[in-house]
Amino acid sequence: MNITKDMTIGEVVRQWPEKAEVLMSFGMGCVGCPSAQAETIEEAAMVHGLNLDQLLEALNK
């Protein structure tokens, strides 16, 4: 199953705990924060000024 832009950070980290390191490498230091649990990958990329395609590519490696 691929990680998509509509998945929440919480969902990704619960299913693939190792992906937290990828998210943190993109500057998302608070992957365990309550607000991050409901934030989608797309929303997080926008808030952090990240390229969504690059983030998804890294998460799906």
TrEMBL record:
<dbReference type="Pfam" id="PF08984">
    <property type="entry name" value="DUF1858"/>
</dbReference>
<dbReference type="InterPro" id="IPR038062">
    <property type="entry name" value="ScdA-like_N_sf"/>
</dbReference>
<feature type="domain" description="DUF1858">
    <location>
        <begin position="3"/>
        <end position="56"/>
    </location>
</feature>
<protein>
    <submittedName>
        <fullName>Hybrid cluster protein-associated redox disulfide domain-containing protein</fullName>
    </submittedName>
</protein>
<dbReference type="InterPro" id="IPR023883">
    <property type="entry name" value="CHP03980_redox-disulphide"/>
</dbReference>
<dbReference type="InterPro" id="IPR015077">
    <property type="entry name" value="DUF1858"/>
</dbReference>
